[in-house]
Write a structure and sequence with these properties.
single chain; about 290 residues; alpha/beta; Rossmann fold; three-stranded mixed sheet
Amino acid sequence: MIKPIRFLLKHPLNRRSKIKALSRFVRWQLASRLIGRPIALPFVEGTSLLTETGMTGATGNWYCGLHEQDEMGFVLHALRPEDLFVDVGANIGSYTVLAAGGVGARVIAFEPHPGTFDKLEANIAFNRLMPRVTAHCCGLSNEPGELAFSADADTMNHVMQASETGPSITVPVRSLDEALNGEVPVVLKVDVEGHEIPVIQGAKGTLSNSRLKAVLMETNGSGERYGFSDDDIIEHMAGFGFEACSYDAIVRSLTKHQPGSDNTIFVRDPDEMQKRCSAARTYMLINGTI
């Protein structure tokens, strides 16, 4: 338990309420063991996430307001209710609920693991977001087909290499361009545990369209298992006209990307996006506002 406690105590959104953050941690540890079934934890703007033990991202949102405060804050500030957000690697739906329930945007979500997809659908239904969210149980790659996915790694489930062992499932995959069928999001999130380059290769039409303003993507070195580096991702995105940036959601500042970050926000026009984020309304969290 030491690691999550350190995380929540150091989290920027808990800087003024560390005791309350510790209280939320203790309450979850007790309730999750006593109740033994999914618990609806309050999230952004009156939404909730149905959470079970082992869901590190969802419990991080409960402990800290926003588990990934800068990336999640960017989604809140960059989107408007009339926009489309595409969530690739949606998991149980933290970003989907954030965009559809928090902002009121329309969302298309993709999650390949059937068990996790059931939890995504449960969160969509619990928050009554069905009119605004379309969810697909499939993976994304450079071409349609099937791929083997790990089956027991929670948010770290990924496309398995032939040399990997362990529990796995075979899931259908599509290209993003084919799956969107001409629709273009304002913001795209890609969280595929290292499989980013094949997803990019299957999204050339989407990434080339000027209506797409920003892409959130992991740059934590996980692509090395497939022979891709973070620099490869940055180079590919630059070819579509995107600049690698970082965002400080607390002060709403968009700056040049700093190497070493686990995530990168690729922005087509940083000046325009800075104005858009600065003008966004304030959102209610469980531990304050952003």
